[in-house]
Write a structure and sequence with these properties.
The structure holds two protein chains of two kinds. Chain A is α/β, with parallel strands linked by helices. Helix content of chain A is about 40%, strand content about 15%. Chain A has helices at about 15-25, 40-55, 95-115, 155-170, 195-205, 225-235, 260-270, 275-280, 290-300, 305-315, 330-335, 345-355, and strands at about 5-10, 30-35, 60-65, 85, 125-130, 140, 175-180, 180-185, 210-215, 220, 225, 245-250, 255, 285, 325. Chain A is globular. Residues about 1-10 and about 80-90 of chain B have low confidence and may be disordered. In chain B, a hairpin with a 3-residue loop joins strand 12 and strand 13. By secondary structure, chain B is an alpha+beta fold. In chain B, the strands form three sheets. Chain B has a nine-stranded mixed beta sheet, sandwiched between helices. Chain B has a two-stranded antiparallel ribbon with strand order 2-3. Chain B has a two-stranded antiparallel sheet with strand order 7-8. Chain B contains ten helices and 13 strands. Chain B is globular and about 55 Å long. The chains are: A alpha/beta, B alpha+beta. The interface between A and B is medium-sized, with 31 and 32 residues.
Chain lengths: ~375, ~350
């Protein structure tokens, strides 16, 4: 793959890894956008990003500022791009609707407007999420979804809305929508350097702050590594990829069931002496109303750090009541040598890493960002 | 009914003569917030269902609270007892529990400091009760390592004592706690009241008698130093376990409980637990939450008394008392209303 590819949100967890993968696996030159309020912040971010990318970035990358919530945010970028990976987003599950709209929907449309002026553009990859499907249940195909379904949170809604509006308002763009799984580790070793609702929920369990599991034991969890995901993104960004939706995730048959995952998690926890000493019980599954009462109770525990954490994971927990079977036939047809899912092994490795590092408090040795890591 | 059993041997035990006392100064949450007695905001605690709590004025001790609570029940109990011709030993034992260990002694700290004689640290309130009240010559037992579950532990121990001592007829159970001056009146997001409770466990039923069907306790020492958040978190796993195990121990199912009388804690807690356990929340009696707060180990007796006062409890109905406390401990007692409650 050659040409000039722009990655938005390039200093983010996934943006950085995607850039590294481009540098390692293609001959593309990169335009990396970062959000910076002034020159000083830009200089800091540029230095940090280039240091993380290492020697591979020398002479092949330019780092430019771009605030996608403002008009014409990419005015400094030449329109000679061949590819765009739109990674910048607000990904918190408790993001407000206003903020989600401003960043995830309007920001995407601003990038698309810029892309429409890039005559040589061969690929526009929007990083979305599996949960843009909202509260649908059952089989979810790799197609655009209408907006007639309730969403568990504004983040989900905003990603679905971005998919729809990008596709409908810019039919001439070579749009590829990559719906990502929940990224739980950097790679198969289980190392975690970016924490999300998955890790925070396990942390609540480990410390006995949450002892109920919202959801259904048979709900499938679609988990992936950043390594797998960034490989997939770069693969989908190549010029030969057919436009459309791809589920960059394990197949439904490979996805782990919530009940089994929880058993695995607690088996790992119970191998830790300090956890065993506390004799915490394995969590009981509870229904939506019960979990709602728990969240209501947490609302009145304003001073509680655990309640704060619970409130932050609650919007994600809603998905545990909506089992889905994601099809990824299109992905496999396009990416023949896609690495298989390690399923429960990834859960085990991730959990072991979390316990060993106490959720990052005992930091593991630093590792490079790049795909060689 | 045959499947129900009292702790210990086959001898029945009956709980009756409920009394309690609270700190004399009633404070609203706003007042206590302003006085620096709370960790959480008054608004948050109000949302949890609390409104007023009770604090002892300076100079009033936990023993004073205990004596007031016992005073409510002993005269009545002695009258019942005397009417049944049991001679001149109306109470055979006192089980005196405290949540805070320092309330298990009415020590003269000044005398201790002056003399360094440890006897000044061993002035026991149960002995004082025996001397101060005309209740015979009961022997005394102290419980001070069961946190807020101490009153239920006292009832359990009383049942076991009556079963193991053929000649004993009556055990006085007392729980009394007063927070030390300057203490924050909030634990694990519950607003605390200074308070005491008392009841009498007898081998024969009398007015208001509730048969002691079963008692059960879980202690998890691994959580002996649990934070407030871990205490709250584990509440939702250990209480369901406690309730189910208690039901099993009593030869019952959870659905057999007609009433649940819990501690005064966040009103949403039992909304959740009742759903988990399949209990009608309308049968969970926590009616004193707003006005009393969490009176430490006295909550069950206070709420039970309120429930009985409604006249809604029928003979044969089973009442589950549940409490969680530091240690961590969880205790439950199953009572069955007798014909004597009419």
């Amino acid at each position: 793959m050659t040409g000039r590819v722009m990655v938005t949100g390039a200093d983010g967890y996934l943006g950085r890894r995607t850039a590294a993968r481009f540098l390692a696996g293609t001959d593309s030159r990169l335009v990396l956008t970062v959000r910076a309020s002034d020159r000083e912040e830009l200089a800091v971010k540029r230095a940090g990003l280039l240091a993380a990318l290492g020697a591979a970035a020398d002479g092949r990358t330019e780092v430019v500022p771009a605030d996608l919530t403002r008009d014409a945010p990419l005015a400094e970028v030449a329109t000679t791009l061949t590819g765009i990976v739109h990674s910048a987003a607000r990904t918190a599950f408790d993001v407000s609707r206003t903020e989600a709209l401003r960043v995830n929907v309007d920001g995407t449309l601003r990038v698309a407007r810029f892309a429409a002026g890039c005559d040589g553009l061969e690929s526009f990859v929007l990083l979305s999420t599996l949960v843009s499907a909202g509260c649908r249940t059952g089989e979810i195909t790799e197609t655009l979804l209408d907006d007639g379904v309730e969403c568990a949170n504004h983040y989900e809604w905003s990603k679905g809305e971005a998919e729809r509006r990008l596709s409908h308002e810019f039919p001439g763009l070579p749009v590829t929508i990559a719906r990502l799984a929940t990224i739980v580790a950097d790679d198969e070793s289980g190392r975690v350097t970016q924490y999300n609702a998955f890790h925070n929920t396990l942390k609540l369990f480990f410390y006995g702050l949450l002892t109920l599991m919202p959801g259904r034991p048979d709900t499938r969890l679609y988990l992936a590594t950043a390594d797998f995901t960034s490989r997939g993104i770069v693969h989908l960004a190549r010029s030969g990829t057919a436009a459309g939706v791809y589920h960059l995730a394990p197949d439904g048959s490979e996805a782990v069931r919530l009940g089994e995952a929880l058993d695995t998690v607690f088996t790992v926890f119970e191998s830790d002496p300090s956890f065993r000493r506390r004799r915490l019980l394995r969590p009981e599954f509870c229904d939506r109303d019960s979990f709602g009462h728990l969240v209501s109770a947490a609302r009145s525990l304003g001073a509680s750090p655990a309640a704060g954490a619970l409130r932050s994971v609650a919007p994600f927990a809603e998905q545990m009541f909506h089992p889905k079977l994601f099809d990824h036939t299109r992905l496999l047809a396009d990416w023949h040598d896609a690495p298989g899912s390690s399923g429960m092994r990834l859960v085990t490795a991730t959990c072991e890493s979390l316990v060993r590092t106490r959720w990052g408090r005992h930091a593991p040795p630093p590792t490079p960002t790049g795909p060689e890591a | 009914m045959e499947t129900c059993r009292t702790e210990g041997a086959g001898k029945h035990a009956f709980v009756a003569d409920l009394g309690y006392s609270l700190g004399a100064v009633a404070c609203t949450l706003k007042e206590s917030e302003a006085a620096g007695r709370l960790n959480s905001t008054a608004a948050d605690l109000g949302e949890a269902g609390f409104h007023t709590h009770h604090v002892c004025p300076p100079g009033v001790t936990s023993y004073d609270l205990a004596r007031e609570a016992v005073g409510q029940v002993v005269g009545h109990a002695v009258g019942n007892f005397a009417g049944q011709g049991a001679g001149d030993a109306p109470v055979d034992a006192i089980v005196y529990s405290t949540c805070l260990p320092h309330n298990g002694s009415v020590s003269d700290l000044a005398a201790w400091e002056a003399s360094k004689d440890v006897k000044h640290l061993m002035d026991f309130p149960a002995s004082r009760l025996q001397a101060d009240l005309d209740i015979g010559e009961p022997v005394v037992f102290g419980l001070n390592q069961q946190g807020c579950t101490g009153m239920l532990g006292a009832v359990r121990l009383a049942g076991a004592l009556l079963a193991g001592e053929p000649d004993w007829e009556r055990v006085l159970c007392v729980s009394a706690d007063r927070f030390p001056p300057g203490a924050r009146y909030e634990q694990s997001y519950s607003v605390i009241s200074d308070g005491a409770a008392a009841c009498v466990v007898s081998s024969r039923p009398g007015p208001g008698a509730l048969r002691l069907v079963a008692a059960h306790q879980i202690t998890n020492g691994g959580l002996h130093a649990a934070s407030d958040d871990a205490t709250v978190g584990t509440f939702f796993s250990y209480v369901p376990r406690l309730v189910r195990q208690t039901a099993e121990r009593a030869g019952l199912s959870v659905g057999d409980f007609d009433w649940v009388v819990p501690q005064n804690t966040n009103q949403n807690a039992w909304l959740l637990l009742s759903r988990l356990l399949g209990i009608d929340h309308g049968r969970v009696w926590q009616s004193t939450l707003a006005d009393v707060g969490h009176a430490i180990s006295a909550d069950n007796i206070i709420n039970l008394k309120a429930l009985l006062a409604t006249g809604r409890v029928e003979p044969g109905q089973r009442i589950l008392l549940v409490m969680a406390g530091h240690g961590l401990n969880w205790q439950a007692v199953v009572l069955e209303a007798t014909e004597y409650i009419r």
